[in-house]
Amino acid sequence: MSTDLGLPPVLDPEAAKNVLLAAPRGYCAGVDRAVITVEKALDLYGAPVYVRKQIVHNKHVVADLESRGAIFVEELTEVPEGRTVVFSAHGVSPAVHAEAQERGLKTIDATCPLVTKVHHEAKRFAGDDYDILLIGHEGHEEVEGTAGEAPEHIQLVQSPADVAHIEVRDPAKVAWLSQTTLSVDETLETVAAIREKFPLLLDPPSDDICYATQNRQLAVKEIAQEADLLIVVGSGNSSNSVRLVEVALEAGAKASYRVDDASEIDEAWLEGVDTVSVTSGASVPEALVDGVLAYLSERGYPAARAVHTAEESLIFALPPELRRDMRAAQAQG
Ligand code: 2E7
Ligand code: F3S
């Protein structure tokens, strides 16, 4: 399905080859905040600073922060007692907060505020004793964090096909929530299937799929229609980046691949390709996109033409615990 935004045609009819660049793409406000949080923590406390899980799902971002002294761990047991640990943008369950406190760790919570909002919704529905159907991907850190807010009330729904097997205590008390980085179209299908089974289904108070996910999917649809090849820059464990490939193919791109950087592009993908479209996931530094555009330019493609479908200006304040320590350090001179 494609979205007609009523935009002027983007292709240059005179040019044999075209490169279209989605806008918006790349860093969202939550990623920007999380990456800056680790950088400022390194400045303020000195290396090493521990980070539970990848701060965002991008291997270049993680490698860069590692080179500056961040240590990424899977579990809090790997963090020496009394040290500082940053929680990733994807959020953590209350059990992880409790474990950190037990181990005497100083914590800085870089959970995206839009994930925290979903945690609050989960707590509220659970407080009203609703069965909560959380649409998302099993094993994703965000889902583990959200589900951990009310494990007895929440069950995971991964696709419309799962709906047939759902059992609830009271069909009149069912609500749904979702991971923030899902495909908008597929989630609508899943919700429709749930609602057919439970007509009294309660919606979240506002969209759980965040503005950045929605905007990047809308933008990719716009550059997919004309694309012989659509390249998504992003890591393999980045849910929102992987979704962009799926959305691109759904929207009519003839082929679409995800790459971590230009070195992963296969020259054979370009055979017979006139129009290449490019976008990037919410955890992807712009330099990696620049690398892909340079790769295309070296192979005879013209400068990219940006296709704007939304403006983004959201900025989140840094975590309060970090701001407090920054103020204290400043006051000490
Ligand atoms: C946090 C949240 O790090 P990402 O690639 O994460 P996903 O969830 O897409 O795998 O992208 C940024 C981001 C998105 N959502 C960070 Cl909850
Ligand atoms: Fe937050 Fe959405 Fe980014 S949930 S981290 S703004 S992709």
How would you classify the helix and strand content by structural class? alpha/beta
Give the low-pLDDT segments: none
Backbone shape: flat
Beta-strand residue percentage: 15-25%
Radius of gyration: 21 Å
Query: Which ligands, by name, code or SMILES, are bound?
Result: (6-chloropyridin-3-yl)methyl trihydrogen diphosphate, FE3-S4 cluster
Helix content: 25-40%
Q: Measure the end-to-end span.
A: 58 Å
Q: Largest beta sheet: what is the strand line-up?
A: 10-9-11-1-12
Major sheet details: 5 strands, parallel
Order of helices and strands: EHEHEEHEHEHEEHHEHEEHEH
| Overall pLDDT level | 96
Helix run count: 10
Count all strands and give the number: 12
Structural overview:
The protein is 37% helix and 17% strand. The protein has helices at residues 29-45, 59-67, 94-102, 113-127, 141-147, 184-197, 211-224, 239-250, 286-298, 320-331, and strands spanning 18-23, 49-52, 70-73, 84-87, 106-109, 131-135, 154-157, 174-178, 229-233, 256-259, 275-280, 305-308. With 333 residues, the protein is an alpha/beta fold. The protein contains ten helices and twelve strands. The chain is flat, with a radius of gyration of 21 Å. The longest helix is centred in the first third of the chain and has 17 residues, at 29-45. The termini are far apart. Bound molecules: (6-chloropyridin-3-yl)methyl trihydrogen diphosphate (2E7) and FE3-S4 cluster. FE3-S4 cluster binds at residues 28-31, 89, 112, 114-115, 180-181, 210, 212-213, 240, 282.
